[in-house]
Specification:
With about 200 residues, the chain is an alpha/beta fold. It has two domains: about 50 residues, no CATH class; about 130 residues, 2,3-Dihydroxybiphenyl 1,2-Dioxygenase, domain 1 (Roll). The protein contains five helices and eleven strands. The strands form two sheets. A nine-stranded mixed sheet has the order 8-9-10-7-3-6-5-4-11. Strands 1-2 form a two-stranded antiparallel sheet. A hairpin with a 5-residue loop joins strand 9 and strand 10. The N terminus is likely disordered.
């Protein structure tokens, strides 16, 4: 993105900029992100900004960071020992079924985790990465963007962990879970996630 009348690195609207100006910039970015502009420069005269949209990092508006990677294990105790005891990471919360822990989240910093589930199915390869999840800031916007791009994406729903979630497969067959945390998400509260599946 190229802004002629007001340069601000990485679209960061914080620090040293008036609240009104920041809101104007946010409004313009929303217009750019949702409009099928050409690669030509254009002028938003009411904001006195000239922007080239061809390099606009559209995904950064909706995708915040990696939420988690899901791994299957045949030995949950050894897996927890490896990540928590040996590497010094912390268990964030557990998945419990009928009073038994069947999985857990391991904290990797902020709201990024490794999700581990016990899987004793002999036909499945232990240690395989089942999927990875992306934390999003606006689930509806992400789903619309995927639909508009011609991708099949599941309708959003609230999971047992209290998160809004949806699913999509990338062109390589990689399963991606989309996560939008809520105030009741186990990832935020640290409460156990009781499941019945």
């Amino acid at each position: 993105m190229k802004i002629h009348s007001w340069k601000h690195p990485r679209c960061d609207t914080s620090g040293g900029v008036s609240l009104k100006r920041r809101q104007q910039f946010t409004d313009v970015m929303n217009i750019i992100a949702s409009s099928p502009f050409s690669n030509d420069e254009f002028d938003i005269s009411s904001y006195n900004l000239t922007v080239r949209p061809s390099f606009f990092p559209r995904g950064l508006i909706m995708i915040k960071q990696l939420a988690h990677i899901c791994v299957h294990t045949r030995n949950l105790e050894k897996t927890l020992n490896f990540y928590c005891q040996t590497l010094g990471l912390e268990k964030a919360f557990t998945f419990d079924r009928k009073g038994e822990m069947i999985g857990c989240y391991i904290q990797f910093g902020n709201t990024t985790f490794i999700e581990v589930f016990t899987n004793k199915n002999p036909t499945d390869m232990a240690g395989n990465i089942k999927h990875f999840a992306l934390e999003v800031t606006d689930m509806d916007a992400v789903i619309k963007a995927l639909h508009d791009g011609g991708y099949d994406v599941a309708e959003k729903k609230v999971g047992t962990d209290g998160c809004w979630q949806s699913w999509v497969t990338d062109p390589n067959g990689v399963l991606i879970e989309l996560h939008e945390y809520t105030e009741k998400s186990c990832q935020i509260t640290g409460e156990p996630c009781v499941v019945d599946w």
